[in-house]
Amino acid sequence: MNLTEMRTRVREDLQDTDAANYRWTNDEVDGAIQRVVREFSLAYPQMESTDIATTDGSREIDISTLSGLIAIMSVEFPIGEGPACCQRVELWKTTLYMQDKGNGDDARVRWYKDHTLATSSTIPTQFEEIIVLGATGYLAASASAYTIDRASIAGKWATINFLKWGQERLERYEKKLKAINRNNRIITREFYTD
Question: Both ends of the chain: CA-CA distance in Å?
């Protein structure tokens, strides 16, 4: 699902489908969607593996090309050892500092990355409804704030109803996000020494 399709899904849930009289602008809907995509990325990031050349005699690896970086998971150097030789590393801005010095060969950096939702999407299909749930919750809550001190057909109940519906959706969204959060997963690792 791309951003346009996601916007349509969000508008359908909000019952905001009259293009001549939208309650929320496309920018507002897109902003809520992008906020939720970022939160989703922190809970369930993309996993990437990138080989980056080391410099002979240096412990530094430049990772400035890793766009959308959330966290570094491991650095394997040298590559292809059995078992894998994972370096102890420190991160400072866009530089990783390895325990061992490089020799010009590649190091394999495994890292977490932000999801994207634009003309295409990196969000797995089974999680698209989480994005809709969060975006509609945020938009409904914002609508409740907007309707305070404004005349409407629903009267004072418009604010209360928007807020309640938005809060219910946000609670469901947060539960679903918590259930898939990478920090809640059990990760098995073996520790060994050379």
Answer: 47
